[in-house]
Specification:
The chain folds into two domains: 3-151, Orthogonal Bundle (Ribonuclease iii, N-terminal Endonuclease Domain, Chain A), CATH 1.10.1520.10; 155-225, 2-Layer Sandwich (Double Stranded RNA Binding Domain). The protein is built from nine helices and three strands. It has helices spanning 3-12, 19-25, 37-58, 64-75, 77-87, 97-101, 108-144, 155-165, 207-225, and strands at residues 172-179, 186-193, 198-204. Helix 3 (37-58) packs across helix 4 (64-75) and helix 5 crosses helix 7. The longest helix has 37 residues, at 108-144.
Amino acid sequence: MDPRLRALQDRLGHAFRDPALVQRALTHRSFGAEHNERLEFLGDAVLSLAISGLLYERFGASAEGDLTRVRAHLVREDSLHRVALALGLPEVLRLSEGESRGGGALRPSILADATEALIGAAFLDGGFEAAQAVVQRLFGDIIQATEADNFGKDAKTELQEWLQARKLPVPTYSILATRGQAHAQTFELECAVPALGLAERGEGRSRRTAEQEAARRMLDTLKSSDRPGSALRS
């Protein structure tokens, strides 16, 4: 086996009995017919269940709505992208030459999909307990450091309230591009605040996810600019 795949399994904490599952989980659809989309579909469901169990244990006194918001934060594309980078997935992804030249190995949506596909592969290889152990290894420290109160509002709602509090018009959202087939599309959207001359982009596997990502990036920009001495304040 490729030493890089052996090292990846060490980082995952799961030694695959069927190495072909690892290869498929790391194979983008541009590479060939044996790609990871079905594993990603499975991994998405397994991840959601495993995260739900970990949150149920971590936040025993929290309401359902709080748990739902924290879970949504943990399984969103941006979080999965960071996990993928920590696992070193850009070095082991299998992409077509064209996709690779276009920077596909660093594209958040591709890396997030591969992370979910690996979780789905672990489920097929060793059952739910094996997949749950992988999720615990990847997200356990993050969950332990998380406070449920930090995720009271989604990014779109928080952005709208931030702007309204400053008597500014609400943001606009527009689709810039869609990629992939209908059952596995990636949306690229723009969140714009014309009154401030600002625009931020977001990507996601649904329009809603892309909007939330763009809104989150806009919030980050606005909050950093809202500090004393910033250009927007002056």
